[in-house]
Structures
1.
Amino acid sequence: MRGFIPTLGLNIVYRMCIFVKIAAMSSTLSFLLSDPSLPIALKAIAQKVQQGERISPEEGILLYEKADLSYLGVLANFIREQKHGHKTYFNRNFHIEPTNLCVYDCKFCSYSRLLKQKEEGWQFTKEDMLNIVKSYDGQPVTEVHIVGGVLPQYDVDFYVDLFQSIRAHRADLHIKALTPVEFHYIFKKAKIDYATGMKLMKEAGLNSIPGGGAEIFAPEIREQIAKDKCTGDQWLEIHEIWHNLGMRSNATMLYGHIESYAHRIDHMEQLRQLQDRTAGFQTFIPLKFRNQDNQLSHLTEVSVLEDLRNYAISRIYLDNFDHIKAYWAMISRQTAQLSLSFGVDDIDGTLDDTTKIYTMAGAEEQNPAMSTQELVNLIKQVGRHPLERDTHYHVIQDFKDVVFEDEVKPNYYPLPVLN
Ligand code: SF4
């Protein structure tokens, strides 16, 4: 059953959480470093983390191959609490997905329909999308997230017009939209280079770009799962150009399909190097491959324990990224709670049931929406400090001591809190 961690696994995870909490209370890694049974290579990595030093790609692969969940959790939680303490961020946002039709045919994609499957698709006009934006008038949302399929009619002129129109209607709404997959396609079609295109997007009112389309950068994997769309190098180049315009973006990695651990580390290494050059990334978001209704359905999904290991290694490896985010709608509310002890400090937003990308891939949340109260409770249940943020992580409201009227008891499982 999706979203259900078998009892044994759940107990293990809970014990790991308790372990992480106990270790974190010392605020150093001495507890771990004094463990005589810890292999020398893992002790060396722990020492590096304690001293704030960067680990190498070889050490990153070693973590995937040799480190157990408790060790990874202690290191990742140490870094997370050094950077943020118990602070845990979320935002109030909604999505617009212009179309689920796409000229590309990515093997892992459960969301898109090919042009020849038009009857299963939707295509929003600019007016449709503006009406969605207008439906949030007067509501305290701070961000609209716009991504979807790639179609010829959604071209440079269309998006310039769309962004200008949203901006004219609601100047305070942060527009986070499109990925290098769309940018590469629309700029090529318009016969303009990336630098010209990204400048146009900025001038039209685009505020930031989300992390999607990164998948796995390694050409030998990308060629098999996402043939024809922008390459890993092109993805990185577009983000670099955007950062050099003084703008910010996020980064993702699709894991748990046909890639190896070395491919994951190579992916993160390329992000880390770009971040060294620009400091333009805000958040890294590991995205779990889901196997429902796509061309890789024969693959078994990785376990929740592997998800937690992956969050933790991401936190340890990407020393120059401020934030690690878990999409609660993709991994379930319970796993999102657990992830907060494995390096994650952001669990995304309220969503308001406005995205189909996760649900069509088989995510547990088939109608992903949480009230602010539910999100806050979810974070508080695991002893963390909820903060509503804007897209750039400025705090909008501190919910630490907020007591909601008509408090409704949520029905998901509370984790033990030891501090
Ligand atoms: S992942 Fe994106 S680019 Fe690939 S088929 Fe799906 S919608 Fe199209």
Note: Residues 7-25 form the longest helix (19 residues).
2.
Amino acid sequence: MNRVLIIGAGGVGNVVAHKCAQVKRVFSDIWLASRTQAKCEQIRRDVRRITGRTLSIAQVDADNVAETVRLIRRVRPNLVINVALPYQDLSLMDACLATGVHYLDTANYEPRDEAKFCYKWQWAYRRRFTEAGLTALLGCGFDPGVTNVFCSHAATHLFDSIDTVDIVDANAGSHGHAFATNFNPEINIREITQRGKYFEKGKWVVIPAMSLHHSFHFPEGIGPKEIYLLYHEELESLARNIKGVKRLRFWMTFSENYLTHLRVLQNVGMTRIDPVTYQGRDIVPIQFLKALLPDPASLAKTYSGKTCIGCVIEGTRNGKRRTCFVYNICDHAACYREVNAQAISYTTGVPAMIGAMLMLTGQWLKPGVWNTEEFNPDPFMAALNTHGLPWKETLPKKGFTGFLR
Ligand SMILES: NC(=O)c1ccc[n+]([C@@H]2O[C@H](COP(=O)([O-])OP(=O)(O)OC[C@H]3O[C@@H](n4cnc5c(N)ncnc54)[C@H](OP(=O)(O)O)[C@@H]3O)[C@@H](O)[C@H]2O)c1
């Protein structure tokens, strides 16, 4: 029997709960705990209505290690799936070490007072997890997560050597609001207002935020979209794990409307992460902004259109140069019909369930702290096709990636 404890009852936690409930032979017992128990109750009602299975639920403050340890001792799970916020990563890893439980998350640790995400804090747990015989699987969402596995799949099956990877992430959907973010607004805005950064010839190159952009032609009817270079966390692990890679970049689509709102919010100080005093009390502007913006999960009902996330990979095979595009297309409305979610939550929650499934069945279990590209990509790629995120690989026509060179 396998028991999982999912922590975080937001947009992604909802999808993980539904997808685990769909795979009863692996996830025989599912617990969901979060800061606000009412959100767990709502997800429990939806999962019961759609799958007929009943989750156990609990309230927990995952910033509090002692409280989380008490919950883990009560539940006795085989695995903790962390889909709360990046701020909780280290306290949850500590709680897993204290209780002897495997760990999985979808986003790397970030300190609250500094908009800086990187793996150094979590990689520093490698020795402790190894000595405890426990596995910690980091960044097992779509990007990071699936994008890393697309790269290891390409390195295993499509290339003898990889020179460049360009990860492209398009949301060509429409939610009908003037401005909203597709996952937690505080985490999302902290990420995209950072300076751009990419890896080239063994070094990191830093550029002003949103200063490099191009048009990219996305497949399957999405068409041309403007993509902007961002720093994204999978670049850090891929730079270590793809041997001999010369360049790694990450690009995301933004509309003019989105960028205009973001610019105004930045200019007036609403994206600040330091406290300001207002009427005698300290408030953090970005947290206040989060309270004003739509809850990303609430966008799902009316969201239409598709996402496309994939890796454009260049390298050599049998002495010849080649370019491959490995990608997934996901439809917002189809996600809503299946699990009451929009595609951004869905494309994050499904890979988290798949990673958990591979850990619980022993296929992705080895003591230590790992990123997804460090495991055999084959069972993960196969599971994407059967659990809602089918992928394609194409050898694009000449000119397809012209600007990327
Ligand atoms: N890899 C990827 O592709 C990818 C893509 C998108 C998102 N993500 C990551 O997925 C995670 C979840 O995103 P989301 O959109 O679902 O966010 P969300 O809707 O804001 O949900 C976060 C949930 O965590 C709970 N939470 C926050 N602090 C907590 C604490 N101290 N103790 C217990 N629970 C706590 C929140 O509780 P309340 O309800 O009380 O606020 C909320 O239910 C984030 O880490 C995000 O960075 C990864």
Note: The radius of gyration is 20 Å.
